[in-house]
Amino acid sequence: MNTNIDYDEYLDDDIIFYSILYSSVTVLFAMAVLSKFLTNEFRFGFRSVLSLAVLFLGEPLCQFFIKGPSGVFAFAMCCLVIYSILPASHLPVGNKAVLVTGCDSGFGNSLVKKLDSIGMRVFATCLSLNSPGAVSLQLACSGRVHLLQLDVTSQKDIETTVEYVKQHTGGEGLWGLVNNAGVWYYSELETTSETIFRKVLEINLFGAIRLTKALLPLIRKSKGRIVNVSSLMGRLTMEGNGAYSMSKHALLAFSDTLRQEMKKWGVHVSIIEPTGFYTENMKEHVINSRKSELWDTMDEETKITYGQKYFDSIYNSIIEGSNRYPDDLTCVIRAMRSGLLSKRPRNRYPCGTGADFIMMLYPLLPVWVADKLISLISIMPKDVRPAGLD
Fold it and tell me: Where are the membrane-spanning stretches (predicted)?
């Protein structure tokens, strides 16, 4: 009888001991995750869901299925692995200088304001210094922000910008480059003229390549960062976005290769991959301007095949549906800042609702299933047909 009592007491002590161990690991992990939220290093998303799953499901599952010291060890390792994929703390701003392209509006404009607010020196380049976005930067930002006119397709503009940056960074070099300038046209491949193809590739791809190569000596000097803004359509394709996807696919290849080649210099390259957001590209006057440009560059046979009515219907649908895109750019700006300042910058930053999940799922799907999925989220209206099919 006494033996049974001793055994029961032993079991109770064992349960209490392991409960304390599990609780200690849980508290430590919860505090570490909470600190990430409080320091604005990440928000609710795929990784935070994993953190919650480990906290609420990991402990009981390990206790029930593994038990003993092995269970505690497995739970601790799960917490450690999840913590390792959370954003790292940031480097001190110090006297770091960053050049950002495409600051007339959207991501670039918001990023400059954010970097200025944390004390960074910023060379903000705009297509026009008289644009509303450039004027807003002049009014809202401190003297740390240098506004420069830059057309990324102009070699002369690039040379002038690089010379200016050299003069204002001295021997420190340039810490960061954010290739954000880009243009988007919605047009099927057959209706996209060579003129438009070349324009999209010149701005979205070759502009980034030219500027990056011109600034690499300054970035190598500081062992800094390069952040290239691509898109989820750089890894998946969608009808009507052929020229844009082509440019972003190529930008991904450039960025991945550059990342490998720059490791020996201590330079890190990150890729930002946003989903759809309501920026300047989605405003009605911009969409109508792009529609007119596309139609004017189309040959007569293609105009007859597709018809003005078909073209107008597509663009009216885009304008009507533009309000479905979020205008809160916070997650993209946070990713850009992380690429520039994180102690452990990620290679890729998918941004937007479901972006991580889409990028994980899409490559695993059979092509026909992937095509069906893409057609469901496509902005192409389903009830219009080209003139040649009527």
Answer: 15-34, 46-66, 72-89
Alpha-carbon distance of 274 to 141, in angstroms, equals 25
**Per-residue model confidence as pLDDT tens digits over 181-231:** 999 999 999 999 999 999 999 999 999 999 999 999 999 999 999 999 999
* Catalytic residue from among 22, 185, 244, 315: 244
CA 238 to chain centre: 18
Helix (H, G, I), strand (E, B) or coil at 42: coil
Task: Report how many helices (DSSP H) and strands (DSSP E) the chain contains, helices first.
Answer: 16, 7
Query: Which DSSP string corresponds to 96-164?
Result: -EEEES-TTSHHHHHHHHHHHHTT-EEEEEES-TTSHHHHHHHHHS-TTEEEEE--TT-HHHHHHHHHH
The CA distance from 187 to 295, in Å, is: 10
CB 232 within 8 A of CB 374: no
Choose among 213, 187, 215, 216: nearest CA to 200: 187
| Entry pTM | 0.79
Instruction: Reply yes or no on whether 244 is catalytic.
Output: yes
